[in-house]
Amino acid sequence: MFQYVIESDTGRVREVNEDRAAVLKRPSGLVLALVADGMGGHNAGDVASRLTVEELSRKFLEAEEAAFGTAESKKDWLSEQVLAVNRYVYEHALNHIECKGMGTTLIAALIEDEDCVLCHIGDSRVYLIGATVELMTRDHSYVNVLVDNGEITQQEAEEHPKKNWILRSLGTEPDIEREMHRFSLSGIPYLLICTDGLSNKLSEREISSIVRSQASLAQKGKALTRLANEHGGEDNISFVLMKPRGEEV
Question: Domain PPM-type phosphatase: where (predicted)?
Fold first, then answer.
């Protein structure tokens, strides 16, 4: 039985929640999970994330079933629709001066049975959590460029003052490079899709400890949010925690 919990918390510092998270399901059983983090420091980040999630949700629910017939067609559909939504958000900003420069990160995951097709833009993250914690995405960030060039280590990147400088976001340019992945959820107890308001505050060990506890899925969601706030809560905290299989209610 597919189960999930969604949490989206403003945190302890910011006045506006610029994150959006949603899970949609078609009659066929195909699921679309979305997490978007409106860009801090940009105008109307909350508008960018809201428009992105609303528009992708609408496209998903209205699409013809044939669009999802194969893994390759799912990947093509998701890539094309994210490109279209990027253009939609970009043009909205052009036509509304108060939204100039707005943007958002995006994780969009199409899930059917044990198959997951993923589109990733920015520094929101996807973790597979079982006996170990596996990070399935790589932040599109300035510090990761430094890591790739051998200028700093991965450990130094985690503490770098420019850690939150991202190089790719949806809606800020007329075109956007999408990073696509496909992987199996076979044998994976939990899938976590989150904004950096969670991943910057909790270590993988802390995340794993909560997610693999005996608490209910809803209780685990509340515990993750609570701990991120206890660690400072400087950013909005949003995530979708999924349990692809199991009896838990």
Answer: 3-244
